[in-house]
Amino acid sequence: MIENITKDKKTGRLSVTFKNTTPAFVNTIRRAAIDLVPTMAIDEVNFVQNSSAMYDEVIAHRLGLLVLKTDLKGYNLPEECTCKGEGCAKCQTTLKLKVKGPGIAYASDIKSTDPKIKPEYPKTPIIKLLKDQVLEFQATAKLGRGKTHVKHTPCLAWHTFKAKATVNNNHKEFEKFKDKYPKEIFTKDGKIDPKLIEKHDLYDACDGINENIVKIEYDPTTITLHIEPWGQLTAKEILLRATDEITRLFTEFEEQIK
Questions:
Q1: How many angstroms separate the CA atoms of 145 and 147, rounded?
Q2: 39-152 sits in which CATH class?
Q3: Average pLDDT over residues 119-136
Q4: Domain ranges across the chain
Q5: Is the dihedral of CA 185, 188, 191, 195 positive or negative?
Q6: What is the pTM of this model?
């Protein structure tokens, strides 16, 4: 069923092409990746001191959206933990910060009791402090799912259908419409090359201009799923955990109807 797998080293994006599949199947994996794969995020913040110009609530909101590296093997979801959500070392960790101005408090200033749970982007600014202003807090980070809060969403995920371009450079209206097409798809002799449309992924840019010159068709049975991680987990970890979550849901469903 899987035709091809590619990875973008710069963004960490994983693209998986499925053949002889359906949109419903691929979309199930996509939704599981976004909504069901757990990630670590700051859940509670106790401010010891905040003499900055920003309210506690605003800073807490910023902290909640910080991307934290996640260790799925080392932590349980609170509702699945033996402590029954009361809070213990198996389901949460503590992060602390104390910065005095003047200067900017960055995510790198946060110290975690677990070195595996730390901000993925250390240069993320939290707040600018003036002279003698102080920000000090203790925060609790927990696992959670994107369906509960977007701060736990591990990635951007979308899918595309395989496209095919049919080109007719000899159509009578070619000269009239050629200026409406992207210049990247033309060869040196001024002709439209379908290979260049594919190379630059300009199917959408060519679609709907004039089907007699360039006709774009999509194959609903060949679909590529793209997973671009925010940084808590790798795209591979997200995809594997997404399939585990789907299996879990079907297992629970099977047990309920027996």
A1: 5
A2: mainly beta
A3: 97
A4: 2-35+156-226, 39-152
A5: negative
A6: 0.88
